[in-house]
Amino acid sequence: MLAPTPALPQRGRGRKLALGAVAGALCLAAVSAQAALYGYTDERGVAHFSAEKLDARYQLVLRDDTAGKFGADDAVPAEAAQALQQLLTGRTGAAAGRTVYGYLDEQGRPHFSDRREDERFELIVRDGEVINSRWNPIDRRRPLPPAVAGAEPPRKGLLALVERPPLSPAAQTALREAARRHGLDESLLHALMAAESGFDIDAVSPKGAVGLMQLMPATAERYGVRADARQTVAHKLTDPRINIAAGSRYFSDLLKMFEGSVELALAAYNAGEGAVQRAGRRIPDYRETQNYVKTVMQLYAHLKPSAVSRMLTASASRGGKPATRVRMEIAPPAAERDAGAE
To answer: How many Cβ atoms sit within 10 Å of the Cβ of residue 30?
Structure first.
């Protein structure tokens, strides 16, 4: 049994990511003009991802040649994309059957239907997911051909590990239960695990973070994981069920602390909630942490583009004008601070 949710301390965990699994490229944080995702699979079959080409092992897996724009070159206006998202959220009318066709008239007004009524209508949504890049500002990322990314097709070699993670049935059950219990998106937890450990249940970082969700034993103890005569807390964290239960509760608490901001919760998960607080509730000026937030959001966008698209659209709606990209401020650098997270 895990203990009741503890109060979160205002201090960073002071750890590095295990297995070098940091990075990503398409996220709601500020991104470079050429967003990209690099990665490689080591000799143990563990995936590593990065927004930067950290060394010669990392190969380009995904790229977004239109980063910084709301959509592709022929993207529909932001208002039309918002209308589509509202339709999907309501699940009524044309969206009731989870398949949506549509077009823009000469005045730029969107028209939707559950069937292709004439040649103007194009398929936009299939099985509830936006598959048409013109109508989805996130779904523009394309896997590179094998000739660019290496002999093995990137989707088969790396992205398949994210899409179909090598988790045991017990771990999959624990993940579903954790997502349900804490109101978390299972795809977001998948992305977090991919960035943290590459789904390696035995991963241990140089600072001692353990398992799928890379928990420090001290953090796990706050969530009720206790050593006994046979096992230390660190050893217990190699059990996916214990690791996922404690890690998901911790991440859920961070989301509450930062008022639902996924990016800030991720930054706090990496650098510690105290670091985010000291940065003025912004992503700290740590290269690793900035890279980590981008990684998870990129992977999340790949797994569930509609979810990230809704986040983008919601931000645009709040601003009252079409979005380019949702911008997450980065705390100004401090002269005395080094580049690494606490």
So the answer is: 15
- Considering the entire predicted model, what is its pTM? 0.62
Q: What is the b/e burial string over 213-244, where b = at least 16 CB atoms within 10 angstroms of the residue's CB?
A: bbbbbebbbbbbbeeeeeeebbebbbbbbbbb
Are 135 and 80 in contact, with CB atoms under 8 Å apart?
A: yes
Task: Please tell me whether residues 31 and 107 are part of one structural domain.
Answer: no
The answer on 314 and 266 residing in a single domain is yes
State the first-to-last Cα distance of the chain, in angstroms, to the nearest integer. 31
Who contacts 140 (Cβ-Cβ below 8 Å, separation ≥6)? 64, 65, 66, 71, 72, 133
Examine the residue annotation and report whether 196 is marked as an active-site residue of this protein. yes
Q: How far apart are CA 201 and CA 188, in angstroms?
A: 18
Contact indicator for 284, 331 with CB cutoff of 8 Å? yes
Q: Which two tokens stand for residue 180?
A: 């349900």
Q: What is the mean pLDDT of each run of 10 residues along the chain (342 residues)?
A: 51 37 35 60 83 80 47 62 78 71 86 88 80 59 41 56 86 95 95 93 93 96 95 97 97 95 95 94 92 88 74 53 32 37 40
What are the beta bridge partners of residue 34? none
Q: Which of 119, 196, 273, 288 is catalytic?
A: 196
At CA 87, angle to CA 83 and CA 92, rounded to 5? 155
Q: Do 118 and 218 have their domain in common? A: no
244 found inside a domain: yes
Considering 101, 118, 135, which residue would you say is the last residue of a domain?
135
Structure tokens at 342: 């606490």
